[in-house]
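WARN retry 2 of 3 for item q-0093 after timeout on previous attempt; input resubmitted unchanged.
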Amino acid sequence: MTTSTGRGLLHLAAAVDQPEPDNYAADPYVTLTRLAERGALDFVTLGDSFGRPGPDALAVLSRVAPATARIGLVPTVTTTHTEPFHVQAAVATLDWVSRGRAGWRPEVSATEAEARLFGRRAAAPAAELWREAGEVADVATRLWDSWEDDAEIRDVATGRFIDREKLHYVDFRGGTFSVRGPSIVPRPPQGHPVTVVDTAEQHAYDVAARQADVALVDATGPAQAAAVRAGLRRRAAEYGRDPDGLRVLATLRIDLGGGEHAAVPGHGGGGPLPSDLGPLYRGGPVGLADLVTAWHRAGAVDGFHLIPVEPRRDLERLVNGTVPLLQHRGLFRTFYPGSTFREHLGLARPANQYAALAGDLS
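OK item q-0093 returned
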C-alpha cells in the first residue's frame, strides 16, 4: 500500500520500558502495549540487559502476548553468555504464544561485571561480541527451519507425532559455539520471527545489513537518515539480500509534555536535537506529526521507533494526537492489514531453506 506521495505507508513502533521502581509488575506493560495496539503501531520494544534490575523482557512480553491481538512484540535478548539453542527456542515460543507476532532485538554484554555473573568467559571487545551475535542470528534462522512446516503428523492411530524425514540437523559451527539441532520447538508461525537490530553500536551495522528485517538508526535530520538507510540497503545487497526486505526506522526519544503547543525551537520538522541518550524531540503531538511527515516525504526512512520520556503520558499523546494526524494525511494505517508482525511490515514469510534444498535434490 502506498500513500498519495507514492511512498509506502509509515511504520511506527514504540518502546514500553518502565522506570524504576515501576518495572516489576506486568500490568503496566500490558496497559502500554494495548494502548500502542489501539494506535495500530507495528510493534513495541522492551529493553533488557544483565546489568540492570527488572524482569526478563522476553518473559514479560510472553505475558503481554495473550492480552493483545495484533501488535508485534520485540524483546531485547542478550546473545552473550547465553546458549544460542535456548535463545532461538524462547523466541520461537513467543511467536507461538502470540500467534505470529514475535520479534527479537539481539544485544551484547561487554562489561566485566556482567561476565562475572556467569563466570564462563571474560568480557570481550564489542566487535567480537557482535560477530558472535550475527552468528547467533544466523543459527537461529537455521534452527527455525529445522522443522518443516508439515513435520508434525499427530497420527493417533499409528502413534506417530513427527515425520522424522522432515526434521533437519543444522550442524552449525561458529567462532564460539556449535549447534547440531534440530530445534525442540516446531517451526514458528512466521517461519522466522522478525529480527530487529539497533545500529547505534557501530559494530552492529553489519549484523543489521546481513540479518535484520528491521534496522534501527540514530539520525538528527532527514539527510543523515537517508544516507544511513541507503548505506544499509547497499550493504544488504552486497550480502546477496534483496534490500527491499529491510525496513529502516529512525529511533527518536519523544517528550510530548508540550501538549498541543508547537515544537520547542530546534525540535520541529527540521529535525530533533542530539542528547546524551540519542536524538530527542520535545514539543507537542502536532509538531511530532510534522517532523514525521517531513522525513517521510523526503524518503529518509521507512518509519520511526519512538521512545517516550514519560511512558504513559507520551504514548497516550502519540496515539491520541500524532497518529490520527498521520492517518488523516494518508501516511499511516487505520487498521492492521493482517494478523502477523511480518504482515504489518509487508514482509513475506520466508521459505524453509531445508525444505527447498530437499526439493532441489529430489
